[in-house]
Amino acid sequence: MTITLYGIKTCGSVKKAITLLDKHSIPFHFIDLKTTTPNKEQIKSWIESKGIKVVLNSKGTTYKNLKKEGKITESILDSKTSIQTQVDTLFHTPMLLKRPIITSAKHLIIGYNESEILELIHAFQQRAL
After folding, report:
1. Residue 110: which of 35, 120, 68 has the closest Cα?
2. What are phi and psi of 92, to 5 degrees?
3. pLDDT tens string for the chain (129 positions)?
4. Are 17 and 117 in contact (CB under 8 A)?
5. Centroid of chain to Cα 102
6. Phi-psi region for residue 40, left (φ > 0), alpha (ψ -120 to 50) or beta?
7. What is the DSSP string of 14-54?
8. Most buried residue, 49, 72, 78, 92, by CB count within 10 Å?
9. What distance in Å separates the CA atoms of residue 122 and residue 124, rounded to the nearest whole number?
């Protein structure tokens, strides 16, 4: 079971997730969103699985600045907005992705959720035995 964590090193939620995984000696692959953009298929699958309101970090500085500059509107969160538009927006500005994003074959965790991360850790440990 391969675990991948997408985030940025300076994000508090990402740091908490890394600390939790490390504490339980869970190996994971870190992908820095500042240097590596997930592909459009990944982003699309995340939106299809969790919804744009979960995947888009509407509380972050990037979103607030783009909204203030008129480069993004609330309509990005509207279900009437095409998924392709949502994918393209997140692909071109990966800092709009909520962090951390933790993936494995059977898990997708978006945002810091300690109970979901502990579930993933438990699943990993059971498989590792």
Report:
1. 120
2. -80, -20
3. 799 999 999 999 999 999 999 999 999 999 999 999 999 999 999 999 999 999 999 999 999 999 999 899 888 888 788 999 999 999 999 999 999 999 999 999 999 999 999 999 999 999 864
4. yes
5. 7
6. alpha
7. HHHHHHHHHHTT---EEEETTT-PPPHHHHHHHHHHH-HHH
8. 72
9. 5
Helix (H, G, I), strand (E, B) or coil at 68: helix
The CA radius of gyration of the chain, in Å to the nearest whole number, is 15
Long-range CB contacts (< 8 A, 24+ apart) of 108-115? 108/46, 108/49, 108/50, 110/46, 110/50, 110/54, 110/55, 111/13, 111/54, 112/13, 112/14, 112/16, 112/17, 114/16, 114/20
Q: Which pair of tokens denotes residue 89?
A: 């927006």
